[in-house]
Amino acid sequence: MASIFLYKIEAPRDGGSTGTVYRYEIDNLGDVSINLDQPVSPMPLPMEDAAENILVKMEGNTEKCTVSWKITDKARALFKQKTAATSDLPSSTQAENDALYANGISTNPNTNVTTSSYFHATNDNDTTTPDTASGTVDKLRKSFQGKDIADEYFLVLPNQTVMKGWVMSWALNVSGSSPVVWNGSFTFITGNVMSIYDADSPSEPRDIALHAVDNNGKASGESGFSGATTKLRLRWKAPTDTASNIVKYNVYAKTDTTSFVLHESICVHADGDCGSVQNLDGAVSGDSNYKEYSFDGTSNKKYIFRVTASNVNGGEGMKSDEVSEVNP
Length: 328
Prior knowledge:
It is built from three helices and 17 strands. It is mostly beta strands. Strand 13 and strand 14 form a beta hairpin.
């Protein structure tokens, strides 16, 4: 089986402008277990058989992945580390491409993996240092310990979609009968990390979409479309919770070769530290059912967007889905 890769994207500390990316390669796999919990509550009806049981879905799903492996002395480094500006921290796609390249897979249906792999010998701090078993355990304890809710983890399993979330727990143990071989395991949970203090932060913006549109803000297939696209239209609907308390929307953008950066924060309510207020309702096409934002970038270049909402208490909510389109 090809190697498994775990990435930790450490956010800048103490107001700094650079973060750190750690990568650990597991090439001595023991077991992988993926568990998807989809809870429902049964509500049996009187005088009915089991087939008429009503199943009530009140909770979301939870996906966890547990990985176990042997930690031994290695003649090559399994750790990689790189300090990078916030704008250069990798996305999940870049992590996937990097893992493919490290596994010797040089092509990808959607991307040139060779040129977009994140780690290279010229910028890697650990290319020549062999890893001892005890040194590996020490690095895992120190470098891969999550401390900030802005930190991110990516888990790349061979032939699986990249998992983004958090490492819930580590178990690292050694036996007296074999003191040179450690047993390692961790449990990874997919999702977005939020502080308990942000519990009233908005959920993600809904129904996000990105289209190439004409000068009137109309996309192909919409009434009034002129047939000539000139820009991109990003649109979404407000979160279903705390929508009336939203102060601003935060638009993040990236390309295939860059990481997400905050493109613009748009104030929609004159509260908090917001400045000039803009009305986003139908701002591009005139369709007031959507919040809309116009973007005009480099011609024939693909852009990827996601949006968050911030409320009056200053809490930034969950990220929307990612959407992409080629700029006309």
